[in-house]
Structures are given as C-alpha cells and as structure tokens.
Write a structure and sequence with these properties.
The chain is of the alpha+beta class. The protein has 2 domains: 5-186, BirA Bifunctional Protein, domain 2 (2-Layer Sandwich); 194-236, SH3 type barrels (Roll). It has 5 helices and 12 strands. A 7-stranded mixed β-sheet has the order 1-2-3-7-6-5-4, with helices on both faces. Strand 6 and strand 7 (119-126) form a beta hairpin.
Length: 240
C-alpha cells in the first residue's frame, strides 16, 4: 500500500483535503496538517485542532465489505503507536476512541465515498504536544505531553502510525476481520462493565458483554436480554 504524505500548515479539515485529492484520481495517501479551522469528530462535533496535535486523514480505495472494519483498524494502529511511545496503559473505547490512562487522547472519524470508485477517508486526531486541554475537555481528555512531560516529533509519530496501519490493514485483508476484533478486544476498556450507551434511538443501559464479528457492541440489559448496538457513545456506569 502506497501512502504518500501530503503536508499542510493549516486546512479547513484534513477530511476535506483528502476528498479533493481523491476526486483528482489520487488513489491513496495521507493528508497531514498542523492545524484545522473546521476539524470535526463523529456526529459533526467540533474537534479542537490548534497546533500541537497530529491531525491527518488516511484515504484508500476499499471494497464495500471491508468498510466496517476501518475504525477498528485505525484505532488499533493509533493504540499500538501510542503504547510504544508512552509505555503506559492505552485502551480502546468502542467504537473509535483511544484512551491514555483513562482519558481520551485520540479519536477516529471514518467516512466512506460510494460510487464507481469506493474510497474511505479515515480521519485521525491525536493530542500530542498540547500543554493543556480546553476547560470543557480537561476532565476527560489528555495529551502525550501532559502525560509524559516530553515534546514529541509529530512527523516521526505519523510515520510509525502509517507503518502500524499498513501492517494491521494487510493482516485484516489476509486473515480476516475476526483477528482484528480479537486484538481490539484485548485493549477494550468497557467490556464486562456496566455502561450507558447514547444511541440515535435513545439511551440503553446494561453490561457491555462483547463486540461481535461485525464490530457491533453487545449489551445485556437488566432483564437478561441481549441487544446489538450499531453505533453510539459509551459512558461507564461502574467498573463491574
């Protein structure tokens, strides 16, 4: 997989630039920017994108069958990159957040372009060299610098992330998605814990039992019935 890096000082969002590059028939690559003026996360939420973070979008051609595995591949690649960097506990929050010692340090936004040439845009935001987080986010978010008190080289971090993504993606294509889910679950922070999941149909409370072969979260409600959650925001109620 050839992932050429396109670097910018500032963009509206790396997703926007990746979309434009794809429309010019550039098959694949990584858009990296020092900052974003309109960075966004899932559900169109604002992603604070001041200088100091790693903001990138990996864009690749895909088959429709493989699209659902990309958030798990990307978050696992981020997790492995940061774990090697910090030697600390780095966990995964379903479906696509990365936690450093229990606080969010990175997020993933995957968008799929359908049509004659299906393509995925995998946006990745990592809090790297920020010395502090905005007040509304300080309790639940962190950065590598806050945790390690050391400044990181963002291009070097991106190169390691690129290697990890290619390795995990290649393994998924060769061996199947089930191996990725198995690896992902080893680092999941919510399994076997009571959780509240905010979905488009309302809030679901229960015990997070498992993640199935398609990446769905399996919840056991108080009445014992199991429920499959396709997408939502997870908040832990307790640790047991």
């Amino acid at each position: 997989m050839n992932l050429r890096i396109f670097s910018y000082d500032v963009v509206s969002s790396t997703q926007d630039v990746a979309r434009l590059l794809a429309e010019r028939d550039i098959q694949s690559g990584i858009v990296l920017s020092q900052s974003q003026t309109k960075g966004r996360g899932r559900f169109s939420r604002l992603w604070h994108s001041e200088k100091g973070g790693l903001y990138c979008t990996i864009f690749i051609p895909i088959s429709s069958e493989s699209a659902h595995m990309l958030p798990f591949i990307a978050s696992l690649a981020v997790r492995n990159t940061l774990a090697a960097k910090t030697k600390s506990i780095v966990q995964l929050k379903w479906p696509n957040d990365v936690l450093l010692n229990g606080k969010k340090v990175a997020g993933i936004l995957t968008e799929v372009q359908h049509g004659n040439k299906p393509r995925a845009l995998i946006g990745i935001g990592i809090n790297v060299n920020q010395k502090s987080m905005p007040k509304p986010l300080a309790k639940q978010s962190t950065s590598l610098f806050i945790h390690t008190h050391k400044k990181s080289n963002i291009p070097l971090l991106l190169n390691q992330l690129k290697k990890n993504f290619i390795s995990i993606y290649s393994a998924a294509i060769e061996n199947g998605f089930s191996t990725i889910i198995a690896d992902w679950k080893k680092h999941a922070h919510m399994l076997n814990k009571r959780a509240s999941i905010n979905t488009i149909r309302g809030v679901v409370n229960g015990k997070a039992l498992d993640i199935d072969a398609n990446g769905n979260l399996i919840i056991q409600k108080r009445n014992g019935k199991k429920m499959k959650i396709l997408e939502g925001d997870v908040t832990l109620i307790s640790r047991t």
